[in-house]
């Protein structure tokens, strides 16, 4: 029995290592490709301007290089801050949100993670997401509505879900995707950019994360109950996302409940749909 358990644990560790490597490589590729695209556009514009004012067009290469380096640094290093500002997230005071900090402390000890910085978004809609380039500089973002709407076991399930994202470095890919698709959204629109982001980070990722979260909490049905509560919460039109900024509107598929504010949208074939996930977890 112990041999089988040890073998299963080794497979899980290997799978996690592969996922982490894949997420970081995909994030780097996304940052570089997006930065190169911006550099090419900036270089072409600069060349046209330089030719018009009769200045050597070779200076456009300098402009393109500077834009490319700056964009890469922005997409990779600054993406968590860009998203946090877009959401209007503020540091979560331990005295005001003791349950959050206590539960995260316990879960981090169980999962072998450093304590992420907890931020709170002022919104009545119960939801949460995670950001960060690595577990050492991660942010766990919750809405004020999440802390109010959920009991301890439900809240633990949601927080475990987000910590799984942090542990598997899902956050580095999703944060880079939001920041890199920001400029593209001006051309193709936020809905199409959001759909592309969903494809980039991987459809079905949320349900896989649910399963892993259930394996680390004390009462696994708590996450199922939390998803039910979120799915049944009425969202007043215009109240979600928590900010009308373009960045905030691009974060839909980063939230534990990506269906918030989209009642009536068909869920067929969408494993990330909150109700579908709750039903699937209830059958386990």
Class from secondary-structure proportions:
mainly alpha
Spatial strand sequence of the major β-sheet: 1-2-4-3
What name does the CATH topology of the largest domain carry? Zincin-like
Radius of gyration: 21 Å
Overall helicity: 55-70%
Describe the overall structure:
The chain is mostly helical and 284 residues long. It folds into two domains: 1-77, no CATH class; 90-282, Metalloproteases ("zincins"), catalytic domain (Zincin-like, 2-Layer Sandwich). The chain is 64% helix and 6% strand. It has twelve helices and four strands, in the order H-H-H-E-H-E-E-E-H-H-H-H-H-H-H-H. Strands 1-2-4-3 form a four-stranded mixed β-sheet, sandwiched between helices. The longest helix has 51 residues, at 2-52. The radius of gyration is 21 Å and the shape is elongated. The two termini are 22 Å apart. Mean pLDDT is 90; it is low at 1-9.
List keywords for this structure.
4 strands, 64% helix, mainly alpha, 2 domains, disordered N terminus, elongated, Zincin-like
In brief:
This protein is mostly helical and 284 residues long.
Topology:
Blueprint lengths: L1 H51 L6 H19 L1 H9 L2 E2 L6 H14 L5 E5 L6 E4 L7 E5 H6 L2 H16 L2 H19 L1 H12 L3 H10 L6 H12 L13 H4 L24 H9 L2
Parallel strand pairs: 2-4
Antiparallel strand pairs: 1-2, 3-4
């Amino acid at each position: 029995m112990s041999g089988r358990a040890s073998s299963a644990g080794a497979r899980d560790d290997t799978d996690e290592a592969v996922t982490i490597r894949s997420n970081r490589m995909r994030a780097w590729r996304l940052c570089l490709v997006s930065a190169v695209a911006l550099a090419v556009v900036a270089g072409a514009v600069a060349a046209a301007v330089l030719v018009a004012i009769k200045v050597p067009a070779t200076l456009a290469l300098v402009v393109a290089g500077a834009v490319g380096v700056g964009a890469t640094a922005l997409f990779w290093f600054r993406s968590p801050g860009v998203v946090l500002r877009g959401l209007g997230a503020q540091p979560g005071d331990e005295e005001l949100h003791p349950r959050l900090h206590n539960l995260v402390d316990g879960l981090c000890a169980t999962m072998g993670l450093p304590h992420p910085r907890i931020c709170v978004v002022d919104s009545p809609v119960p939801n949460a997401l995670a950001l960060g380039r690595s577990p050492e500089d991660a942010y766990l973002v919750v809405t004020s509505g999440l802390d109010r709407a959920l009991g301890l076991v439900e809240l633990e399930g949601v927080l475990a879900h987000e910590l799984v994202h942090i542990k598997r470095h899902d956050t580095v890919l999703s944060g880079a995707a939001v920041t890199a698709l920001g400029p593209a959204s001006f051309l193709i629109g936020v809905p199409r950019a959001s759909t592309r982001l969903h494809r980039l980070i991987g459809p079905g990722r949320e349900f896989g994360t649910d399963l892993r979260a259930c394996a680390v909490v004390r009462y696994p049905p708590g996450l199922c109950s939390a998803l039910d509560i979120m799915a049944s919460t009425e969202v007043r039109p215009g109240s979600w996302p928590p900010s009308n900024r373009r960045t905030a509107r691009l974060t839909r598929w980063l939230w534990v409940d990506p269906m918030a504010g989209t009642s009536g949208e068909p869920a067929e074939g969408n494993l990330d749909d909150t109700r579908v996930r709750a039903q699937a977890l209830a059958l386990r």
